[in-house]
Amino acid sequence: MCSWRSPPPSCGCGALPAPSVAEGRRTMPRGARVLVSLAVLLVAACGPAPPEVVVYTSVDPVYAAPVLSRFEAETGIRVRAVYDTEAAKSAGLAQRLMLERGRPVADVFWSSEQMQVLRLARAGVLAPYESPAAAGIPARFRDPARRWTGFGLRFRLFVCQDGRCPEAPTMDHLARRMRPACVLANPRFGTTATHLAALLLTEGEAALRDRLAAWRRAGLRLVPGNAHAVREVASGRASCTIADVDDVKAAERRGQRVAGRHHDQDGRGTFAVFHTVAVVAGAPHPREARALVDHLVSPAVERTLVALGAVSASVRERPDPGGIRWWTTARPGLAQAYERLLGILADFGI
């Protein structure tokens, strides 16, 4: 798969005069015939560029690259992927898309969660497209205005060292005085921001402020991202965190002794985010953009992401995959809740 880079320089193609039929081979010196042959080859080499599509994605390259490579192999469309940083995650790319509105560079936005795509839809950055490959995806994971489609559930897990996990973990464990203290990814970005915005939307501002105050009293530390938080737990520098399933799977592949538990199973359950994909309004390559969306929302890609450990389950499965209690939201109010969340976090010096 092609990584982001500047377009190749021009081939410098131009019209070349061809010898007349009357001149024939006999009147053309051998050296000239060689030069004409090379010129013809140059003209052929400078023909139409192969089709391509530019995708901005917050999905980690280890998971996104195999999916995009398969798309290239199946369609012949070259993919230029721009990835976000661990700390900024989808918020950084969403801001870039906002700034590029009116003169877009990207064709597709593939996010590892749902909140940023809601913000972009609200700002008019996304174009409507209903993929025929989205058949079977429940309505709760699709925008009523057809501007985005959701797929691939990602559970937020309570993470602790293997063998040191509480029997029935809840989010309240983050507020307990532990030594060492628990950690959490910066709640201004990524899935932690989506999680807290969803809590603000469903539980109210007073409850969220109480939760943040309890975390501060317990000495909870903030770190740049979910992967960093899991590493802190694995190293013994933190007692627990709440992070995404793919970060836990990555730690397990590295041989780190961490365990991910579905929290709040006696209540409404584990919070889940899900992947979202959308065509950018005014996309430079609209046909290729739609083809990539069709690929990403297909059942085959969901199965691939589950096998890779990038997501927990397909959104096409029954509401309780594996009997796990979980909840999520993609209500339009989530985008407004995020804006309110940033103000609340600022009050806490975050």
Would you give an account of this structure?
Strands 1, 2, 3, 4, 5, 6, 9, 10, 11 and 12 form a 10-stranded mixed sheet that branches. Helix 2 (61-75) links the parallel strand 2 and strand 3 (78-83). The protein is α/β, with parallel strands linked by helices and 350 residues long. Helix content is 37%, strand content 17%. Mean pLDDT is 87; it is low at 1-28. Helix 3 runs parallel beside helix 4, helix 4 (115-122) packs across helix 11 and helix 5 (190-203) packs across helix 11. The protein has helices at residues 30-45, 61-75, 90-99, 115-122, 190-203, 205-217, 226-235, 245-253, 286-296, 299-308, 333-347, and strands spanning 2-3, 52-57, 78-83, 108-111, 126-127, 149-161, 183-185, 221-223, 240-244, 258-261, 270-280, 326-327. It is built from 11 helices and 12 strands. It has 2 domains: 52-153 and 273-322, 3-Layer(aba) Sandwich (D-Maltodextrin-Binding Protein, domain 2), CATH 3.40.190; 155-270, Periplasmic binding protein-like II (D-Maltodextrin-Binding Protein, domain 2, 3-Layer(aba) Sandwich). It is globular, with a radius of gyration of 25 Å. It starts with a strand and ends with a helix.
Question: Topology, pairings included?
Answer:
Blueprint (H helix, E strand, L loop, with lengths): L1 E2 L26 H16 L6 E6 L3 H15 L2 E6 L6 H10 L8 E4 L3 H8 L3 E2 L21 E13 L21 E3 L4 H14 L1 H13 L3 E3 L2 H10 L4 E5 H9 L4 E4 L8 E11 L5 H11 L2 H10 L17 E2 L5 H15 L3
Parallel strand pairs: 1-3, 2-3, 2-4, 7-8, 11-12
Antiparallel strand pairs: 4-11, 5-11, 6-9, 6-10, 6-11
